[in-house]
Amino acid sequence: MRHRARKSxxxxxxxxxxxxxxxxxxxxxxxxxxxxxxxxxxxxSASPTMTASHASPIVPTVDVSRRLSEAELQxxxxxxxxxxxxxxxxxxxxxxxxxxxxxxGDDLDEWTRTLSExxxxxxxxxxxxxxVISMRSYLENDIRVPAGKHxxxxxFDDGSxxxxxxxxxxxxxIIADPDSALGVMEAFYAEHPDFGxxxxxxxxxxxxxxxxxxxxxxxxxxxxxxxxxxHGYEIGNHxxxxxxxxxxxxxxxxxxxxxxxxxxxxxxxxxxxxxxVLTLPYGAYPDRDLHPDQWEWLxxxxxxxxxxxxxxxxxxxxxxxxxxxxxxTFDRYGIYRFNTDPDVLSYWHEAIDNGxxxxxxxxxxxxxxxxxxxxxxxxxxxxxxxxxxxxxxYTPSATPSATPHASARPMLSITMxxxxxxx
Length: 423
Fold this sequence. Notes:
By secondary structure, the chain is an alpha/beta fold.
């Protein structure tokens, strides 16, 4: 059963539910990994569909004929069944601003990061050989990461103002404002071209990074979103009104998910349109007993205004680093993430540093899945065969003390309360 969070007392505080589970690097075979086995998306019918383009944002050029030598296998020790961190960001403030809500309360603390803290986060990942990939490439198992590096997916919820702001440089060119998360990323990516590029933004259209002081050319939402897409970012679906999906009517459910897809299809470039990837407000699925049809629609698709909608992924607000898309535990309808408040972020960063989280380590070739041979049982071989992937098994020269699927250390599983957008 999934663990669902509720906003408590209007405070928006962080709710920690500590569960003794298998280690984060393990988890395979645990019921908490997925609410049901992986189900392939509904096949596209002859009728008009709303399935996103498979065009990818900026990705490195990869020689798919390149295979690691025996010596390279031992040097890089790839494990493409390891975990992939998907940190979750919400609000940002300048360094000298308090992490409080506009009305003076403290209920945004756990959802707010200063820009300096965000830069430090990026540096932390860079220093540990992470490489930023797109959400689409993760969901499609088209992970183009240099050998020996670890994929990382950055996600941003709500489309709040300081996530993305723009200004004009001295030449009159529109650029990302350095006093925004987008500006921080643009600068960091420019300084570290070996870090990859991208970010998945689950946007609420009525927010859309509202910034009345920006350039007039960036005043409307489609222009802002298309600028981001042209620079390698992706735009996702966070429902029409940040609606808790636990218990709403069928018509409201279809509207909340389907209407944003119609809007995005009409207003933004297809290559960055991930409106078929749903970020759950509050991490809340429909109540399975009250709304069984809605559960089926999330996985099997549904008709909205005469068009077929097939969700390609659903993002949660909790769970820790997410399983590899090559693993039998991968569930595209329950993608794990983790919050970026100090307590939660430091927990997972420490777990990564001390080896309790066994990371996905790339072999450098998206067409080959390379894993230690003792992990072969956890490969989703049927799906990999459908994807045309080759599988390489090898024996590492030095066996780690804990494999990605076995550890004596219990995992802290954290269920978090998402916040309602403001403004």
